[in-house]
Amino acid sequence: xxxxxxGHTRGLGRALAETAAAGGATVYGLARGRLDPAPAxxxxxxxxxxxPAALDGALDALVPPDAPLEVVILNAGVLGPVAAMADTSLxxxxxxxxxxxxxxxxxxxxxxxRAAPPPRQIVLMSSxxxxxxxxxxxxxxMSKAALNMLARxxxxxxxxxxLCALAPGLVATAMQDELARHSAATFPSLAxxxxxxGTPDMPRAEVAAARLxxxxxxxxxxxxxxxxxxxxxxxxxxxx
Length: 240
Known about the structure:
By secondary structure, this protein is an alpha/beta fold. Helix content is 42%, strand content 15%. It has helices at residues 11-22, 55-62, 90-113, 129-132, 138-157, 174-180, 191-196, 205-219, 230-233, and strands at residues 2-6, 26-31, 42-46, 71-74, 121-125, 162-167, 226-229. Strands 3-2-1-4-5-6-7 form a 7-stranded parallel beta sheet, sandwiched between helices. Strand 1 (2-6), helix 1 and strand 2 form a beta-alpha-beta unit. The longest helix is centred in the middle third of the chain and has 24 residues, at 90-113. The model has no long low-confidence stretch (mean pLDDT 92).
């Protein structure tokens, strides 16, 4: 498998890169930092997703023109402030949207223009927050809701690729560590996340990555462009 993966140096992205490479995949990693030591099979280029216009050049440097990309996983993202919307500045919203939405648009546009055959599968990492609209997740929820629509719209423009906006369920990553710092008394939606820490309801990134890679073929049964939450689509996935 030839996999283009964004945000491959931390959390779920790192676990995806290491698991895929260990399975023999060629992984093209694009992230702000670098994975060091890099597993065999990983080629990586650094790029700032907060500056989406710079991603075209980074992609050209990362992926050879004739590389047979089969799967693309757009995983890079930021949480943004955990705060009431009235306390969230436009500048903070712009930053989150740049990374979580517009950077992904640039990558999708690059795929549309690419002369090589398109990938068979493109997964955009979304979240249940894109649907639930819980208090305190404003910037993140808005960006992931926009990402869901991005997947639906680009399904028309990449008809030979299958697109999916995927909510991977709860995963023990640095984002959850950040959320654990905030009070569930102030943000009630965090209570279930706090309770899930250290339980099977919030698996380690390595476990979640292996499950995600195993389920890639099963995602193809959903209409292209659809939002899929693994906790509802797959009965064996734990989590609230």
